[in-house]
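Q: Convert this sequence to structure tokens.
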Amino acid sequence: MRVSSGVPGFDELVQGGLLKDRLYVVSGPPGSGKTTFSSQFITQGAKAGENCLYVTMHETKEELAQDMSGYDFGFDQVMASGKVQFLNLMTDGGKRTITQFGTEGGLTNRIVAFLEQQDIDRAVIDSTMLLQHFFNDVADEITGFLSALKQTGTTVVLISEMTDPSSYADEHYLAHGVIFFHNYLEKGGMTRGVQVIKMRGTAIDCDIRAIDFSDRGLRVLPDQKVEA
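A:
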């Protein structure tokens, strides 16, 4: 079964949507569209009646809402609807919430228990770099964290700060899908694009497609290829 990303034009690149209950990594440089893509993904789920979770380690709920306030795809409404739970792991409240889901096994077991006990359908985790604050042995524990996420019945989007699409990290190898956002300066200004680098169970071509932003949010132009 596939679920819509909520991003106009993107689902055409992946045979109609993302395969349900899988782990997807969204990578790219700052300002390339990762958070907007993830917010539209969560909004789509909430509008479809799904239980959603947004986990962050560096933004408050109010800051994220402010970041998305320039768009009218409905993020504010779903965040206030009760269908989207928001968890900031750097706040005392967030730490207390996650501790309720066990004290053994650290962050990995607690996040997985939260997803399962709260029956979360889709989740965003922002981000891999900030996860390092919670792990002593980063390489081993992130591998275990990603492997555990793949076993849940949740469709997960994990934001990564990886800026080089040719340099794979553990999260790219372990994920079911890898989506990379590009932005680079040319003579005519900023060129933006999205590239599906990996998508298990889905026919993809790995070409970079143009994207743009409007008051409706991020949009993919599937028929418009970009040369890197």
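The helical segments are 34-47, 61-67, 75-79, 92-99, 106-117, 128-131, 138-150, 170-174.
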